[in-house]
User: What shape does this take?
Amino acid sequence: MKTETFNQLNKVIHEKGRMAIMTILASNPEMSFKELKESLGMTDGNLSVHIRTLQQAGFVVISKTFVRNRPHTSYRLTSEGVHAFGTYIDVLEEIVRMGRGVA
Assistant: This one.
């Protein structure tokens, strides 16, 4: 088994909560804080910390607007985030193939 393949996993994305956020944002062009929170079953604080980490890595962009005079925060993947997540999935697929003796 090639251990260097495991070293290619993006450590920012690899944490369970952040992987879930990246996965859901990869399949939705944009989601609100409330939608993400409800979809993932996270607390406000937990989601905020993970989003901040992804934002600092350049993977997620945050948009703050007002809807009917109420603050509305939404999130989407950046082009860098899309690329990083695609690469992450490719590495995971290679690991799965190795585990099945296919690689």
Residues 5 and 95 are 7 Å apart (CA to CA). The radius of gyration is 16 Å. The helical segments are 3-7, 11-14, 16-26, 33-40, 44-56, 79-99.
